[in-house]
What does this fold into?
Amino acid sequence: MKNILGREVPDNIKGYGEVKHYGGYLASKGTKTKRSIKLTNVLPGDEKLHDNLDVVLDKLPLKDGMVVSFHHHLRNGDFVLNMVMEKIAARGYKDITIAASSIFPCHGELVELIEKKVVTSIYAAYISGPVADAISAGKLENPAVMHTHGGRARIMESGDLSIDIAFIAAPTSDDYGNINGVDGKSACGALGYAYTDAETADITVAITDNLVEYPNTTIDIPQTLIDYVVVVDAIGDPNGIVSGTTQITKNPIGLKIANMTTELIKNSGYFKDGMSFQTGAGGVSLAVAADMKAEMIENNIKGSFASGGITGYIVDMYKEGLFKSLFDVQCFDLAAIKSAKENPGHMTMSASMYANADNKGSVVNKLDVVILGATEIDTDFNVNVTTTSDGTIMGGSGGHADTSAGAKLAIIVTQLANSRISAIKDRVTALTTPGETVDVIVTERGIAINPKRTELIERLKETNLPIMTIEQLKDIAEGMTGKPKEVEFTDEIVAVIEYRDGTVLDVVRKAK
It folds into this structure.
């Protein structure tokens, strides 16, 4: 059947179950219930600390079919997921569900475990590399569930997914489990995606390579949520934890898009004292941040807060007084990690506080402007950041759908055509973010405003910006690339794309 977005989503999916169909971005309004949390008390004299992971695994209630969780703050330098899953596999356990906030190329060892049915289900907000390729090829027993960052916190807090054991990579910990991400050789900054795991899992194990004396003087996740502490030689590779790729684009096309975006924001009605702002770590997004910095200084604009994954460019704006505070769920570079440790106005937050649609008010609801990217956009303003145009999984929502829903002005920046492929389609290959929450598309050839934003269209008519319809943009793109050939898919569903409230937006099918 087709849902209200015109996507073909069945009522029941093998390996996933009954589908709750997407009903609109505000359809989940109402009273929500938090799951009860299982706690095992630690008595005076009990030891949490161990220097051997196998010793802790011997104490844990491991079983076939269990759900284990991991966070991705160590990004492409993470050692912990592979380390733990290798030992679980060696013990002969099968049918494991992995709930990882994101999966990177460094987790390629999981492919063999998928093929051997050790791992049969995966929940994640973002998947790239060999694991994404394996899922796209239909190797995972059950469809991967691809949620948003806020959606991950929601499914854990609600009990829609119960975590048996959470394994938390802890850059620094004391012997009682007070952990932080800003110290140690594997420092990654904020631990926002790990907090809900620690809070809701039946058992939580902190794995660290930097044990400090009790009490750890900086605490991101407290001892009250940790059952065991394990010391290992290394939890990650610092070169992969901080990629070093957070640089402003030098591409003239990208710089043109950034300049147009900044001009749009200046004339949007949101460029004023007290504005709040979020942008990603991509080259064009960082160029927007640099342009915004210059404009805010020139126009003496002082913002309220910047949020999201924080970069050094945003830290610089904070240090210069352009934003009163920062809300940080993950750090993208060394400057952000250093700032999170040193600056009192640089506040770390949990993924739930950041973007959970079912709590009493997440930070994304207070955003004025957010800058987001896209793989594809269709003429209904729906956005795909989950797959390539050939249907191969290469990413996922992360906070894309969360921030787009919350912000007053959600702007998508993208090159109109890349590698002879148009970014504007009649129908996106996979739908990650519904068009009703997307306000503006900015490309190097023109800007399309969602027709529902009539007040924005009227306001921007007075500028020299190249405003046009989304259909006109598509025609320009196809004039450059030609009409794209339709990709054929089988009926096999390899992934389910959930919206932030747990309803299903779309499915990813295996390509023929």
